[in-house]
Amino acid sequence: MTLHTFGFVGLGLIGGSIARALKAYDANNRIVAYDANRKALTQAYEDGVVDVLVSEIDSRFSDCDFIFLCAPVKFNMDNAAVLKPLLKEGAVLTDVGSVKGEMHQRIHELGLDGQFIGGHPMAGSERVGYANSKAKLLENAYYIITRTESSTKEQTDAYCDIVRMMGAIPLVMTPQQHDYITAAVSHVPHVISASLVNLVRDSDSPNEEMKMIAAGGFKDITRISSSSPVMWQQICLTNSQNVSDLLEDYIRSLTDMKAAIDSHDADKLMQFFDGARKYRDTFIDASRGPIKTANTVHVEIYDEPGALAIVATILASRSINVKNVGIIHNREFETGSLRIDLHDEKEVIKAKEVLEFHGYEVTIG
Q1: Does residue 293 carry a pLDDT above 60?
Q2: Which of 7, 139, 253, 294 gives 67 a disulfide partner, CB atoms 3.0 to 4.6 angstroms apart?
């Protein structure tokens, strides 16, 4: 495998995770990085992830075969202009932004169509920053690639190889396809999640009973609301039409459901919830989408002495390393439920298999 020099402008959660994955694949891969956060850069150097620390975007990026723009969308556009005179012949400039249309338009204005290929790893976390990055964040995640009209097959194939180095799965589509799909499965859900959190905040009593009870299932379904507000502000501003159109469809659906609830339309309510359940059950368990699972399994247990210890012993016997264990206090589950956090998807699948073998009911996520 040919070794490469990779440049990173921005070394947060995604940039840091990509850099870690490439370094984990081959420690000889050379990485040059710039980030306004000097602490993050220093940590990356001490971790052995970054080889060359850069205090500004300068000629040291001219050695790079691939340069990843890993800042919020608007900043990526500005940084592309700065990098333009520094790109060596044959170098590929890419980004990891969640919106592709405006980025491709800016790249065209800069005359960089022949050296740019858009990228978007469909992985993430509610946590931000380099300190929370990890190589396995990208493992088995879809990595969307958006070509320009000038992108060659050789460039695209080489980029797909780099994506596979990260442990991710390349998926090529147009910028327009990308922006509509991600609006539906990522951008609108983040808006909805934040809206639900704000609804509870604004509806709660002075004693905050809602907040106290929300520590169960509500906290899980709104986990993504802890993501970077700057990033989501920019996503909504740059993919505004798609987000707005899909929100309009969603609002119409909510209005229909309100009418069904007000009229006690039992059939319509059943169709609504049953249709959602059936479609949701067709989703694959692997975290290949934009909202990564928390590498968590829920295990139904009986409320009796030793129940927790038995589960822990079963997992330990198979060398499954448990990251954290919590007890779900709300009664979404008829008995009780352990929430077990594991380190990666492989351990999640292994834990599910071994616990089900021993007769436990297990759900992922």
Answers
A1: no
A2: 7
Give the distance, in angstroms, between the CA of residue 6 and the centroid of all CA atoms in the same chain.
22
**Tens of pLDDT, residues 208-255:** 888 887 766 777 778 778 877 888 888 899 899 999 999 999 999 999
Q: What span, in angstroms and rounded, lies between the C-alpha atoms of 308 and 305?
A: 8
Residues 6+ apart with CB under 8 A from 252: none
Both tokens assigned to 141: 């995640």
Gap between the Cα atoms of 22 and 16, Å rounded:
10
Q: Could you tell me the two tokens for 254?
A: 């909510």
pTM score of the predicted model? 0.72
CA distance 359 to 345: 21
- As a whole number of angstroms, the distance between CA 148 and CA 263 comes to 51
Q: Starting at the edge strand that comes first in sequence, how are the strands of the sheet with 30-34 ordered?
A: 52-54, 30-34, 5-9, 66-69, 92-95
